Structure formats: structure tokens, C-alpha cells
Amino acid sequence: MIRFRLGTRGSPLARTQAAMVRDALCAAHGWHADEVETVIIRTTGDRIQDRALAEIGGKALWTKELDRAIEAREIDAAVHSMKDVETIRPAMIAIAAMLPRADVRDRLIGADSVAALRQRAIVGTSSPRRRAQLLRLRPDLTVVLFRGNVDTRLAKLAAGEADATLLAAAGLDRLGREVGHAIPTDLMLPAPAQGAVGIEVRADDESAAMIVGAIDYPATSACVLTERALLAALGADCHSPVAALASLAGEMLTLRAELLSEDGTEQVEGHAEGTDGAEIGARLAQDLLTRAPAAIRKLFCP
Ligand SMILES: NCc1[nH]cc(CCC(=O)O)c1CC(=O)O
């Protein structure tokens, strides 16, 4: 008997994350694995592999088809990497839970550290944040476009298309790829929501919200919602080089964030503390934008 239908993209990482959610649901509700049906949904983002995500229309490319399936009641919930979920979601969709966050750091593959990269090394990435952060640390580097799923990027590296690449430790770990060297967050602050898996439901589906809510890890939700509040207040999109990481100690949330110009020559950073994630995100966004030079401000539309 099928008790719940879980939608996911078809990439190996997406399937792995959906299996983690399925297992968590089964553990929480005493279901057997075959009582949760996994529905693979191909998104526009999966079909288009040769251009930077930012160029072709942004994060909705990963969510639109899953949103439609939720609305059409073809699935009860959708599993996403929260990093890929656009800041403003349709009113029909609600974020119902997040799994415990994995390693939030980026990992460098191809050299032991950013400092150890050879002079004028070529680094493959399509992330405006990673590009700007790398160029800020090492202006001699050349950054080339690298897209595709985790294994595609590792294959491009192995084929010599670049000397090194950066990938999220979370994705590598979930896929069991033990490669690369973690970059400390004080050297390279990760993307907002990096390492977090989220589950979305139809906003008016109380039953699905209850079922999924049982596996929510509140500390992850609190931190990721704080990082997303910053993005919302910044008017950031996936062209915007922005890094952010929240942490929770007791009731106190601390949000650190960094905005960069596209070439990394300009940077503003800051932090804010409080107990209300939405308020902290908005306050830090305001502070950063006030201090940001024009080359950074133009990349945001608050
Ligand atoms: N943009 C692709 C994407 N979305 C989520 C992850 C990794 C998993 C995570 O951050 O939870 C990745 C790959 C990467 O950045 O290396």
C-alpha cells in the first residue's frame, strides 16, 4: 500500500536525498520503504546542461515541474536541495521540513587548498559566488564554466578541462565521493542553505504537512530560513554573488554574510544576531547594502 508519494529530480544526488527523506519518514511513522513511492520528475534544469544556470532563468528551473506535480496532486511532497529553491515560492507551496544539515563547506578538488593552486590555474565552476570568492582570494586564477551534476563535473576535471573545481561537501558525502579538501568557512563562506535538504508540500495540505513535519530538524530549519530571509531582503537571484551561514546556540541565531562584485574585487561582509530569523536576515541585508559599493549594489534588487 502506498501511503505517501515523494517527488524528486532524477539526478543521482536528488535520488539519494529523496531516499534519505523516505527512510526518515518510514522511521518516524513505522512504514515500510515500499509504502513511500518515489516519483522522478524531469525538470527544465535537468534538460539544459550547457549554459550557466543564472543565464537561462534561475532556480525556478529546478522547482517548476515539481511545484506543478504538487499542485496537480500527483505527489504529496517534493524533496529539494534548499540551496536550489528560489527565495520567493508560489503561495501554493510551503516548506514543511528540513533534514539535519550536512557539512556546509565547499570542497576543493584538484589541489590541497586555494593557496596551493598553481599560479594562473584554471578552476571550473558556474557559481557566481564561488567565482567571485576564488578571484578575490587568487586574482591570478582563470574561472571557466562547469555545469552538470556532481559526477559530470568530476569527469570534466578528470578529462583535464580544469585544474580544479569546487563542489559542496554535502553532495559529495551523500554520493560517497571521498574527494577534495574542505575549505574552512572563514576562508569561503558557503551558499545560503548549502547542505540542507528540504521537503515541500501543497500549502493547504495539512495532512502532508503533519506527516512531513514529523521529520523536521528545527535547528536546520531555523538557520536556513534565516539565510533565506537575507536573500529575500537583498532581492538576490542566482546572478548575485552572495554567501551566508547562520548558526544557532540555544535560542540565539547568528547570521554571517558576504556580498561580492562579480570579479571579486569588491566585497562587504557582516554579521547579525538575534532570536527572530526573518528580522535578522532583513537587518543584515539592509546593513550590507548600505555599505556596498555600486558594483555590488547593482547585483541586488531589494
Ligand atoms: N547547485 C547544485 C547543487 N545543489 C545542491 C548541491 C549540493 C548539496 C547541498 O548543498 O545540499 C549542489 C552541488 C554543489 O554545489 O556542489
UniProtKB/TrEMBL annotation:
Domain Porphobilinogen deaminase C-terminal, first and last residues per copy: 222-289
Cofactor note: Binds 1 dipyrromethane group covalently.
Residue ranges constituting the Porphobilinogen deaminase N-terminal domain according to the UniProt record: 5-208
Known pathway: Porphyrin-containing compound metabolism; protoporphyrin-IX biosynthesis; coproporphyrinogen-III from 5-aminolevulinate: step 2/4
Pfam family membership, one: Porphobil_deam
Catalytic activity annotation: 4 porphobilinogen + H2O = hydroxymethylbilane + 4 NH4(+)
EC number(s) stated in the UniProt entry for this protein: 2.5.1.61
Entry-linked InterPro entries: HemC (IPR000860), Porphobilin_deaminase_cofac_BS (IPR022419), Porphobilin_deaminase_N (IPR022417), Porphobilinogen_deaminase_C (IPR022418), Porphobilinogen_deaminase_C_sf (IPR036803)
Superkingdom: Bacteria
Record's GO cellular component terms: cytoplasm
Obligatory cofactor(s): dipyrromethane
Keywords, ordered alphabetically: Porphyrin biosynthesis, Transferase
MF term (GO), any: hydroxymethylbilane synthase activity
Further comment found in the protein's record: The porphobilinogen subunits are added to the dipyrromethane group.
UniProt family annotation: Belongs to the HMBS family.
Function: Tetrapolymerization of the monopyrrole PBG into the hydroxymethylbilane pre-uroporphyrinogen in several discrete steps.
Protein name per UniProt: Porphobilinogen deaminase
